[in-house]
Specification:
Helices cover 21% and strands 26% of the residues. With 466 residues, it is α+β, with helices and mostly antiparallel strands. Strands 6-7-10-11-9-8 form a six-stranded antiparallel β-barrel. A two-stranded parallel ribbon has the order 1-2. A two-stranded antiparallel sheet has the order 17-18. The relative contact order is 0.17. The N terminus is likely disordered.
């Protein structure tokens, strides 16, 4: 087993519940199309995207993660070897592409003329990007250095390329672009995980950048913290928490979102609340909802009126909060007491696409995630040799062959170590192919930038990593 393996998983409104000035019903129609069948026909009409994995989730009942993690309390889990049974059959590069599941929100933002309206939809997109993590307790496969993943969705109007640009520390870079030059969405992620005794805390370091080209706008933000509870005993469950600040670098508008910790009695589990402020720091809209369900927008005055009414009736008591580092004796999943309570006058920004009924038997994948590792007819010869759909260990796990998956995983890791030793002996540095370290033009910070050309040159001079 590899001792150097990284452990990481890692709309002013749509439809109004009362009255609002803007109706986004067309966005909901787009979303409902996904809900209806979760599939899309190829242009030649010969195949349909799959709706299930080849095999059901592999049982972890006979494996103890405690035997591996008990010496790692408070440490970053950067070099801890984990049995393949704790994985899910996706590479982390594929997991990143799940940010694109609700791409229709980006298209909606591109179509709006008002900057605050656009910020609302971008905020909903930022929340939707983490929605697929709900109940996803399997660890994605660590990408090999030089591994890539491409995703082309003509029906959704975009294509994406990602590359594992660093192994120590593990860094994954991605770049998505509209097929009609409407937007670009890009970033890099350096997931840092720590074990706190009964939970694993994940900090997804890295900046997300969304450019709306027609409006000449750029938005940046970082994702919230993630905590997986009951690593040792009990039912695994996930919460997201922390402050996410979305900045429109063209207008100066900001959206501050607070992903709330669940609290002592779980009343704030999954809740997200925040507001949009303009350059003069005037609140323009309040955003609220749950990252697992939906997000709403409302006028700040209406929101404050509702909160004052709640205080009078005593229906909104103050809650104690907690973090992963300081845990309660009982770390069980709090009972979800209700869904989002909609304030009259609110506008619906986004609603999550329901998962397939058999999702629990497929690593809790969404319909979108189920399709990510599919090898469509004749696709193998069209992919770059470094594409993670060609990884034999992930493919074996997807088919339920845990022994073959483990053997292939160890073979690939040893091959990677041997290549690293060879480069060291020859005094060579690894050279990335599609991304280069540069400066994010909007934040001024170091960031991995896509150099272009992947879709024209992906077959040439590919490293032999599998």
């Amino acid at each position: 087993m590899n001792s150097e393996e990284e452990f990481f998983d890692a709309e002013t409104g749509l439809e109004s519940d009362d009255s609002c000035e803007v109706s986004f019903k067309d966005a909901l129609v787009f979303d409902s199309k996904q809900v209806t069948d979760g599939s899309s026909m190829q242009e030649n009409g010969l195949w349909e995207r799959r709706k299930a994995l080849p095999a059901e989730t592999i049982s972890r009942n006979n494996f103890s993660v405690w035997s591996i993690l008990k010496k790692c309390i408070g440490m970053e889990l950067s070099k801890i070897a984990m049995p393949v049974v704790f994985n899910e059959p996706l590479s982390f590069l594929q997991r990143i592409s799940e940010y694109m599941e609700h791409t229709h929100l980006i298209h909606k933002a591109c179509s709006l003329s008002d900057a605050v309206d656009r910020m609302q939809v971008v905020a909903a997109f930022a929340v939707s990007a983490v929605a697929s993590q709900w109940e996803r307790t399997g660890k994605p496969f660590n990408p090999l250095l030089g591994e890539t993943y491409e995703l082309i969705r003509e029906d959704e109007g975009y294509r994406l390329i990602s590359e594992q640009v660093s192994h120590h520390p593990p860094i994954s870079a991605f770049h998505a672009q509209s097929l009609k030059q409407e937007f670009e969405f890009h970033g890099s992620i350096y997931p840092k995980l720590k074990f706190w005794g009964k939970s694993v805390e994940a900090e997804p370091k890295g900046t997300m950048t969304l450019e709306l080209l027609k409006h000449k706008e750029a938005y940046t933000w970082t994702n919230p913290m993630c905590c997986i509870h009951n690593i040792i005993l009990g039912k695994l469950w996930i919460e997201q928490y922390g402050t996410v600040e979305i900045v429109n670098h063209s207008t100066g508008d900001k959206c501050i979102l607070n992903f709330k910790p669940c609290g002592m009695f779980g009343k704030d589990l999954h809740k997200v609340e925040g507001f949009i402020q303009d350059r003069s720091k005037k609140k323009r809209r309040v955003i609220y909802g749950k990252w697992t369900e939906c997000m709403y927008s409302i006028d700040p005055k209406l929101y404050e009126t509702q909160k004052k009414a709640e205080k009078k009736t005593g229906s909104d008591p103050k809650k104690q909060e907690r973090s992963c580092e300081v845990e309660e004796e009982d770390d069980e999943l709090p009972e979800i007491q209700d869904t989002v309570t909609v304030i009259p006058g609110s506008a619906l920004l986004w609603r999550v696409t329901p998962r397939p009924s058999h999702s629990a038997q497929m690593y809790n994948f969404t319909s979108f995630a189920v399709t990510l590792n599919e090898l469509e007819p004749r696709m193998e010869r069209l992919l770059a040799p470094t594409d993670c759909r060609l990884r034999p260990d992930i493919r074996a796990m997807e088919h339920g062959d845990i022994d073959l998956a483990s053997a292939e995983k160890e073979r690939l890791e040893e091959k990677q170590r041997a290549a690293r030793r060879e480069r060291s002996e020859d005094d060579e540095e690894w050279s990335t192919r599609w991304f280069r370290m540069g400066t994010n033009p909007f934040t001024g910070a170091e960031d991995w930038q896509y150099t272009g050309g992947y879709f024209d040159r992906k077959y040439t001079d590919c490293p032999n990593i599998y």
